[in-house]
Amino acid sequence: MLAREGRAQSFGVELHNTMMPASGGMAGASLSRPQDLQSAMNGNPATLTQFRGTQFSLGGGWAEPTYNVTQFDPLPLVGVDPFSAKSGTPGGLVPAVGITQDFSALGLPVTMGLGVMGNAGAGVDFRDVPEANGTSAQYLALDTVAGVGVDITDRLAFGGAIVLGTSYLDGPFVDLTGMVPAYALRGSVGVNYWLTENTSAGFYYQTKKHFTFDDAVLFPNGVLLDVEFEHPENLGLGVANSSLLEGRLLLAADVLYKVHSDADFLRAIYTDQWVLQLGAQYAATSRLRLRLGYAYNENPMRGATITSIGGVELPDGVPGLRYVQGQFAAIPEHRVTGGVGVRDVLPGVDLDLFAGGMFENTDQFASTLVSVESYWVGLGMTWRFGRGAVEYGAW
Q1: What is 128-163 written as a DSSP string?
Q2: 64, 163, 217, 293: least buried by Cβ within 10 Å?
Q3: Beta strands in 52-198 (DSSP E)
Q4: How many CB atoms lie within 10 A of CB 84?
Q5: What domains, with CATH codes, occur in the chain?
Q6: pLDDT digit string (tens) for 283-307?
Q7: Could you tell me which of 217, 200, 122 has the C-alpha nearest to residue 154?
């Protein structure tokens, strides 16, 4: 059930820190100055060096989508007739759990982290609509992340992370599939540099994550086929500044580029994509943080130029591919978020709350019309062992 409908606020199918305890209130902006340790591990691992002492954080969020599909024309080879319905896939929980440990006590400028994150998700369910002929698609992704950050100089940090991904795919080939698991490795490297005392910039690169879902498709004639599925390469650049209002205001901006054109399965659905994430955090008091964010998601939906997906030829050709696109439509472009952070709700324990909404957007793929909107809420609690354990420019 993890990350069951993470697409409610994802870019393509990936979340990019939009459901993390503090970054969730800043639209995910976190590549240079993350305000929670999960975002450092899941984003730019060089920023792990900003976390001191021993810290443990337990967080998660609930995403609730509204996903409507209208199919105007029949797809005779897969038995789909015209229909109009709301997806029956419920909202779901996205976890974010992590721990960091720095080694300054040993004279080493190193911080290591380990976490479990909801990385991606997508899902629609129209099995209660007879005309849809069992149409259902679910994609779930959970990552175990191990990262390390090293301070090379007082200004420059370098980091790397290894990700073991566990994913489950069901669909989207109408009534021909069952849920199948697969596993894959992924890596990321990053740097972070302090341009001035208050301004920093970070960059990271993340490799593809390749899954082979064995025997995922069973045709009526008994033929079994594997499905090849890849998360795309990601590149990100982030800038953060805390010079305003005597250091009480932190401004952050991230730009992401997602290379869908070189990713199995997704390249049939999406084009390469730009994402902009903007976040602000204001220290209202020594304990209270107020957060706002805005994210722009370039509509990545591509025109239908091929008739296969993930190595599987679609029975109804281009209309069939457009129908699949309608099940993975990442079309909303605008989202807003807000959040609150309270330090020391208990001694050494911080509480973060966040919420967000994605404005409705509608798109049409040949004879398939789709509209999507959603909201999400979440929280996290962080235990800090050792006073002065966090180095936040805005704190």
Answers
A1: T-GGGTT-EEEEEEEEEEEEEEEESSSSEEEEEEEE
A2: 64
A3: 54-71, 83-86, 92-102, 110-125, 136-151, 156-170, 180-194
A4: 12
A5: 6-385 (2.40.160.60)
A6: 999 999 999 999 999 999 988 777 7
A7: 200
